[in-house]
């Protein structure tokens, strides 16, 4: 089975990315032939500083390895090392109805959040479909927010196959991680780089603790019992703490006598312990950037071996060759 997913180098990796994308990716690298890439072309739809993009790409390469992706098991590469993806995106855009793009939640959400829309942001789903289809991916692990993009990908692949012949493109399946489908941010909304509500994976102890202390709660006084419904503190704690600790926190909410500062401190402590191995690995890789860059270069070679096969097949099917 061929597994593929991409992640944008558009800011520091946060725990939503970790549970929504990285953890499933690490598990899946043992279950099939995995392709993981740094979606740098995509990041350009929302950022314009060249130095920031360059350094984010480097950071993400380090993070992918620090979180446990293994270059002996998975092909790890950078999207723009395979520029042929743009050609497939173009071919897909010729069968893509405008209405399909106009209905994209992600586009509408981003515009509503103040990102000034450009053509690339609007056409994003065709490039994302090309990312997936260029490698004959069968399974695409993503967070819930990407569900519609996967449906569009299947839709576009189906249109190509209808028009130019069955088997031209492989129709992929999405794999949405259910129990961690949407990791909430500090404000209780979906955690996202663009909403300024993240808990980063990497950062100084003080800064991370400070951000965890910003989790929004109600203002129930310390001595009173606290509601456990829709609690962001509990939802986040569940990600790092074992069942007994979570149960204890729920009991302490119900009993009263514990303040939110105490609960947040527990969230921080469990966070810090949970990510210790990732931090250690990251520090080691930061001192060995040659190795990181070599992994990415080798990944591009392996990825291209696949992409050229698929693109040749598509070119022949559509009449470009
Ligand atoms: P962001 O929203 O912070 O810009 P991306 O869009 O780059 O994050 O997402 C990268 C990956 O992480 C995708 O697979 C996405 O579905 C997943 N992801 C992002 N935020 C969350 C979240 N809050 N909960 C679960 N998964 C998430
Ligand atoms: N759109 C995805 C996100 O914002 C990133 C991405 C780009 C992707 N291309 C992909 C994910 C292909 C899976 C497969 O999270």
Number of domains: 2
Overall pLDDT metric: 95
Bound molecules: adenosine-5'-diphosphate, tryptophan
- Cα distance, first to last residue? 29 Å
CATH superfamily of the largest domain: HUPs
Pairing-aware structural class of the strands and helices? mainly alpha
Tell me about the largest β-sheet: 3 strands, parallel
Inertia-based shape: globular
Helix content: 55-70%
Q: What is the helix/strand order? A: EHEHHEHHHHEHEHHHHHH
What do you see in this structure?
The protein is mostly helical. It is built from 14 helices and 5 strands. It folds into 2 domains: 212 residues, Rossmann fold (3-Layer(aba) Sandwich), CATH 3.40.50; 72 residues, Tyrosyl-Transfer RNA Synthetase (Orthogonal Bundle). It has a 3-stranded parallel sheet with strand order 1-2-3. A two-stranded parallel ribbon has the order 4-5. Helix 8 links the parallel strand 4 and strand 5. The mean pLDDT is 95. Bound molecules: adenosine-5'-diphosphate (ADP) and tryptophan. The site of adenosine-5'-diphosphate has 19 residues, from helix 1.
List keywords for this structure.
2 domains, two-stranded parallel sheet, single chain, binds adenosine-5'-diphosphate, binds tryptophan, globular, Rossmann fold, 5 strands, 14 helices, Tyrosyl-Transfer RNA Synthetase, 321 residues, mainly alpha, three-stranded parallel β-sheet
């Amino acid at each position: 089975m061929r597994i593929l997913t991409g992640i944008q180098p558009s800011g520091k990796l946060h725990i939503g990315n970790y549970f929504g994308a990285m953890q499933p990716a690490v598990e899946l690298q043992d279950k099939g032939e995995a392709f993981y890439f740094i979606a740098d072309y995509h990041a350009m739809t929302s950022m314009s500083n060249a130095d920031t993009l360059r350094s984010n790409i480097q950071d993400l390469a380090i993070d992918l390895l620090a979180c446990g992706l293994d270059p002996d098991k998975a092909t790890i590469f950078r999207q723009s090392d395979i520029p042929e993806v743009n050609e497939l995106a173009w071919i897909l855009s010729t069968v893509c109805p405008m209405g399909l793009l106009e209905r994209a939640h992600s586009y509408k959400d981003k515009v509503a959040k103040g990102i000034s829309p450009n053509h690339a942001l609007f056409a994003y789903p065709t490039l994302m479909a090309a990312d997936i289809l260029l490698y004959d991916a069968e399974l695409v692990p993503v967070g819930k927010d990407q569900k519609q993009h996967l449906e569009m990908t299947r839709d576009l692949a189906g249109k190509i196959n209808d028009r130019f012949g069955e088997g031209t493109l492989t129709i992929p399946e999405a794999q949405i991680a259910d129990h961690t489908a949407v990791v909430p941010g500090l404000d209780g909304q979906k955690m996202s780089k663009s909403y300024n509500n993240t808990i980063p994976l990497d950062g100084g102890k003080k800064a991370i603790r400070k951000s965890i202390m910003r989790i929004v709660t109600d203002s129930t006084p310390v001595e009173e019992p606290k509601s456990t419904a829709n609690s962001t503190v509990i939802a986040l704690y569940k990600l790092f703490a074992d069942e007994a600790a979570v149960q204890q926190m729920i009991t302490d909410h119900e009993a009263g006598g514990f303040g939110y500062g105490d609960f947040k401190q527990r969230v921080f402590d469990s966070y810090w312990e949970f990510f210790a191995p990732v931090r250690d690995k990251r520090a080691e890789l930061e001192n060995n950037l040659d190795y990181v860059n070599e992994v990415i270069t080798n990944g591009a070679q392996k990825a291209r071996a696949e992409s050229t096969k698929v693109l040749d097949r598509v070119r022949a099917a559509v009449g470009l060759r």
